[in-house]
Amino acid sequence: MTSACTIRVRGVVQGVGFRPFVYRLARANTLAGWVLNGDEGVEIHLEGEGDRMAAFLHELRADAPAAATITAIEVDPVEPDGHDGFVIRSSRERARPTAAISPDLALCARCLEELFDPADPRHRYPYLNCTDCGPRFSIVRGLPYDRAATTMAAWPMDARCAAEYHDPLSRRFHAQPVACPECGPGYTLSGASLDIDIRTSDAAIERAAALLREGGIVAVKGIGGYHLACDARDPAAVLRLRGRKYRKEKPFALMARDLATAHALVVLAPEAESLLRSAAAPIVLAAARATLPHVAPDAGELGVMLPYTPLHHLLFAAGAPDVLVMTSANRSSEPIACDDADARDRLGGLADALLVGERPIARRVEDSVVRHGSLGPVILRRGRGYAPGAVAALPVSRPVLALGADLKNTVTLVVDGQAFTSQHIGDLDHFDAARAFEETTRDFLAMYAVREDELLVVHDAHPQYRSTAFADTFGRSERMAVQHHRAHIASVLAERGAWDDRVLGISLDGTGWGDNGSIWGGEFFVGGIRTGLERVGHLRTAALAGGDAAARHPVQAAAGFLDQLDDLPDLTREPFGFPPLFDQARRVLGRRTRVFSTTSAGRLFDAAAALLGFLRPISFEGQAAMWVEHQACGAPV
Ligand SMILES: [Zn+2]
Ligand SMILES: [Zn+2]
């Protein structure tokens, strides 16, 4: 007997080949009806025999495309409409699109084969992709996800690409960025100081690879922004890059030609290797095996990734060095460059040449950084491959915008109970990062069509944060301040859906505004999300000379912690050899002006680092603690 049902599939199901998958599945089970991209995910209407439908539903879950993440499948019986055959309908647009947009995905194995197949029409084409791989979030200008709403809108498809795009049985069916050498964008290479101006992709890539071999620095346009690349095994090139980028010591990320090369660089556990090879293709931090001067001074780990765009594979195939430094193209602490005119402006003095792809980038997305820890993968920086993933489901119907804190900022938008977290934005005391923060927030609100008057805006309790000031610009929204460390505990509970659990939560951190106006960072709370979190304990309070400035000078932080001890020896002598700043800080403490109290775990680590011999100012956040970790790893057990 013929029956019918509607099926709603939620999660990351658009732009990942889901509709053609449904089409093939329905055909295989001789079912009639239609499928379309709705704004809450994929909607399916199905008519046919009951056992066929059961088989369809089973395979829908079991065989979904690799890039899809299904969060829910809802099935409702309906009356049959009398369809004969199964069709893919065009997207429907409604009041608010809440379908999750897919993150950008690394080149898939089948596209990689085509890339190096001389008989393939897309042989050596740097913008090759299919529904299993390629850019998504970085090219989307609006929802629903269709070519007209991407940065590929300017390149009309030729007959070949159009045929594949419209063929439900093709791997490129509705692959929005589909293109080929005949109809799509290409790459160019320019470098004023070297008098380079190459307009064809092949020649541009060849010359860029040669420049890298010769020790040059090349700016390479990628998925979510520009990288600065150089030969990681060439100490002079790496030092030159550090000098031009004003980045003294912070570790550089590496791109290894292939997995074997990555294994030679770092110790890779099987879990770390699968992160490296995943469709997200992040930078994976792992214990260093190789020594590469100036790449990651004083660090026991290296950050390594594999090539994830056709261009990267082509660069290595053209003879680029097998390990490249691939660092975000910017001067220290600025956001990554992603606009071409801006890149030429800002990177002209940093790079010897610019390898520029013609496809525009809709929004900047940096490489993600992950580490495989004892509790599983830990995302240290959320970016390409993970953003804008849904990180939690919340029992709220109202839209909530959470603006984050000023350091290592990300923003989160909750729409229809799903929490979407943005890519890493940066430190908001930098002008460009603050601008990127506002852009990203507006971008999120526009993408999900959220109105200001229905929005709850949540911000850090710090009265002087830029994110707090920005919250005040939402005049028509309700606003709420949340204490920094309670937010840390609550987000861990939200990830686990533990709405009713009563917990002891320990938040060990650098800096956050406390209830009493002092600097918190080593806090113990008891409670839960619904009942609130009561502070029941904290690290012993220490005085901090100069407040936040002490975060840059471990010796200055040490002065406050050591001030509590009687009979302190003269630490400016050997074996400690503290610089004069230490005694200056102690005098400030004695005068009791510009002295703040803190319970920060980060400053406690800094004090320990100073006593162990880290006497210089830090040049990036977390440096002293990383240094201690590195010393500890090398210590005899
Ligand atoms: Zn592919
Ligand atoms: Zn084409």
Word description of this protein:
This protein is α+β, with helices and mostly antiparallel strands and 637 residues long. Among the domains are: 87 residues, Alpha-Beta Plaits, CATH 3.30.70; 250 residues, DHBP synthase, CATH 3.90.870.30; 93 residues, Orthogonal Bundle (Tetracycline Repressor, domain 2). 27% of the residues lie in helices and 24% in strands. The strands form five sheets. An eleven-stranded mixed β-sheet has the order 7-6-14-8-9-13-10-12-11-15-16, sandwiched between helices. Strands 17-20-19-18-21-22 form a six-stranded mixed β-sheet. A five-stranded mixed β-sheet has the order 4-1-3-2-5. Strand 21, helix 12 and strand 22 form a beta-alpha-beta unit. Bound molecules: zinc ion (ZN) (2 copies). One zinc ion binds next to helix 3.
Question: Helix and strand layout, with pairings?
Answer:
Elements lengths: L1 E11 L5 H11 L3 E7 L2 E9 H13 L6 E10 L7 E3 L20 H7 L43 H8 L20 E5 L4 E3 L2 H13 L4 E4 L4 E6 L3 H11 L7 E4 L2 H7 L4 H8 L5 E5 L13 E5 L4 H8 L5 E6 L11 H8 L5 E5 L11 E5 L2 E6 L8 E4 L6 E3 L9 E4 L2 E4 L9 H17 L8 E5 L5 H6 L6 E5 L1 H12 L7 E11 L5 E10 L3 E7 L3 E4 L8 H9 L18 H11 L3 E4 L2 H12 L10 H12 L3
Parallel strand pairs: 2-5, 8-14, 10-12, 11-15, 18-21, 21-22
Antiparallel strand pairs: 1-3, 1-4, 2-3, 6-7, 6-14, 8-9, 9-13, 10-13, 11-12, 15-16, 17-20, 18-19, 19-20, 23-24, 24-25, 26-27
